[in-house]
Amino acid sequence: MTLQQLKYVIEIANRGSMNEAAKRLFISQPSLSNAIKDLEEELRITIFERTNKGISLSKEGAEFLGYARQVVEQAELLEGRYLNAKPSPQHFSVSTQHYAFAVNAFVNLVQEYGQEEYELALRETKTYEIIQDVKTLRSEIGILYLNEFNAKVINRLLKDAGLHFNSLFTARPHVFISIHNPLAKQSIVTIDDLQNYPYLSFEQGEYNSFHFSEEILSTLSHKKSIRVNDRATLFNLLIGLNGYTISTGVLCADLNGNEIIPVPLDCDETINVGWISHKNATLSKLGAAYIEALQEAIS
């Protein structure tokens, strides 16, 4: 086992493709495949599972990747200390539902840990795609919520994908509305109060089941309903149309301004927001730092 082989494993996991990893490493795909095959034979484990749809980490591979990242990070520290070597570009990716605090944490991560070179990704995307991104290691971490209604379906998908849910916080439901909305003066709103206002929700594409909705109470019917794909559009419609959406109540004024406020929603539901990752994978340095930044952002 060589340090180069460990770097190969990390690059393949980052790219989710043997071919893409080979291009980034400036070697041929057969050479890369043979190097991984030799490593697997030496260790007597299967790191990557090959299918017609591509490659994915095995259960053993996810655990191995965590150790490989630690070894490579330590080796780079040694090289930087004694050989004045240029540090390798940092890699990190997170997929998340549309939470302002997730973006705020990402900003803080880059400000504190960003080197001269880095390749990072923040994907605000659909619920099902978050699970698939983490399953295939397109992203190291995913952020979504569980509640009594969706937990059975989401937990089954996580179990089948070898992923683990880690709770960040449990929130009471709030509505996000414009400060100019007549309901902004109320200390709490009811479902009946909201009936004449446009309901805004995030489009879930092919997997548009109620269980994948980013908003709780997804089975309720609405006289006025608009689906959107991104957070900026939703916030603009909150202001422009006096619309509302249902979420955690956690906002960041630094990023989102003061035109939108959370108002508690009168209902008995709770929202358990957390992050998902591979069960047997150790978080990278940036992954662990991002979790810390998340905890600070929501505190």
From TrEMBL:
Annotated family: Belongs to the LysR transcriptional regulatory family.
Key word DNA-binding present: yes
Record domain HTH lysR-type: where: 1-58
Protein name (record): LysR family transcriptional regulator
UniProt-listed InterPro entries: LysR_HTH_N, LysR_subst-bd, WH-like_DNA-bd_sf, WH_DNA-bd_sf
Entry keywords, A to Z: DNA-binding, Transcription, Transcription regulation
GO CC aspect terms: protein-DNA complex
Lineage: Bacteria, Bacillati, Bacillota, Bacilli, Bacillales
Organism for this UniProt entry: Paenibacillus solani
MF terms (GO), sorted A to Z: DNA binding; DNA-binding transcription factor activity
